């Protein structure tokens, strides 16, 4: 809401009015700070928190946390609230008969803006700066969700970042700067995007080992360009598969880009199966394969000094 007015009146934002209109419900507001006015909702929320969220659950990401929340809700359907005779799930089925059908189309929850890309290759969204793979001065469509910020160009998604709720931060993706780093390889070692990849665990130690070997073999400039070319393969084949291939070439003692690409493509390579050819009457001309056993006797002869 924009503003609290007299009594229960509120000045609503246009986005909330659109949300309410889409799902077709009427909004009723309580007195600020008076949660007891909706005691049933507050009580059930407290029950759920105490029984399913204490201790605080651990999850890899928001998707896993939402999956746990859904599973807990399903388990709660068998509970019988004090003073009731039917379970929560049974009463939910009865209530559904009196509800309106859901709209066919979903409601877009994103906050949309059109920032301009600055000289650092970032677009400002609210108070933070997010990297995008576009030239400076380009206008990009930014969509802000609760957990991610998505960027689009001509309606096509081109980048996505985890949303930051801090202020004046730079959220950078090394992948967005690879073309620039190919022209200026010396900027890679001390760059902020590389530091953020290291902090996120996206730059394993095997990458540093390969990078050093490439520098020793080709020199710092050419070696770094080769390393940038290797990282670019992650776009095509996936970074998990790239990390596995880099670890393999280190074991093999190889520092060639082509060898890494070959390992990445090895799963898709198809070799023609050997087939037996009937030669018929030509079998009469078949001869045994030559042997080199007699020549091996020369290896046993001692040659006088």
Question: Quick summary of this structure?
Answer:
This protein has helices at residues 14-23, 39-52, 62-76, 88-96, 178-183, 192-200, 205-218, 220-237, 239-252, 257-265, 293-296, and strands at 3-4, 10-11, 111-113, 122-125, 128-131, 141-144, 148-153, 156-162, 170-171.
Shape: elongated
Number of helices, where a helix is a run of at least 4 consecutive DSSP H or I residues: 11
The biggest beta sheet is recorded as: 4 strands, antiparallel
Helix/strand-derived category reads alpha+beta
Average pLDDT number = 90
Rg result = 32 Å
State the distance separating the first and last CA atoms: 101 Å
Task: Give the tally of β-strands.
Answer: 9
Model regions low in confidence, pLDDT < 50 over at least 5 residues: none
Write the element-wise H/E pattern from the N-terminal end onward: EEHHHHEEEEEEEHHHHHHH
Helical content (DSSP H or I, runs of 4+) = 40-55%
Work out the count of structural domains: 3
**How would you write the strand order of the largest sheet?**
3-6-7-8
How large is the share of residues in beta strands?
5-15%
């Amino acid at each position: 809401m924009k503003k609290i007015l007299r009594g229960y009146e509120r000045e609503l934002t246009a986005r909330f009015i659109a949300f309410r209109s889409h799902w077709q419900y009427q909004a009723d507001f309580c007195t600020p700070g008076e949660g007891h006015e909706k005691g049933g909702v507050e009580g059930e929320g407290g029950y759920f928190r105490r029984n399913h969220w204490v201790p605080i659950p651990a999850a890899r990401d928001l998707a896993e946390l939402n999956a746990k929340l859904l599973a807990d809700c399903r388990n709660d359907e068998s509970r019988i609230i004090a003073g009731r005779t039917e379970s929560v799930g049974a009463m939910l089925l009865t209530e559904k008969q009196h509800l309106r059908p859901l709209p066919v189309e979903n409601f877009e929850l994103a906050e949309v803006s059109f920032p301009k890309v600055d000289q650092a290759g970032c677009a400002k969204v609210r108070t933070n700066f997010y990297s995008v793979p576009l030239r400076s001065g380009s206008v990009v469509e930014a969509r802000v969700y609760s957990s991610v910020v998505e960027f689009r160009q001509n309606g096509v998604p081109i980048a996505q970042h985890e949303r930051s709720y801090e202020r004046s931060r730079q959220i950078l993706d090394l992948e967005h700067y690879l073309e620039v780093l190919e022209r200026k390889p010396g900027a890679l070692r001390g760059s902020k995007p590389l530091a953020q990849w290291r902090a996120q665990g996206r730059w394993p130690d095997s990458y540093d080992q390969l990078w050093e070997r490439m520098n020793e073999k080709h020199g710092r400039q050419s070696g770094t360009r080769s390393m940038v070319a290797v990282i670019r393969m992650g776009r095509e084949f996936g970074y998990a598969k790239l990390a596995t291939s880099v670890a393999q070439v280190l074991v093999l003692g190889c520092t060639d880009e082509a060898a890494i690409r070959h390992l990445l493509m090895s799963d898709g390579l198809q070799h023609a199966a050997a087939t037996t050819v009937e030669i018929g009457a030509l079998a009469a001309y078949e001869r045994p394969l030559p042997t080199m056993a007699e020549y091996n006797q020369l290896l046993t002869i001692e040659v006088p000094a």
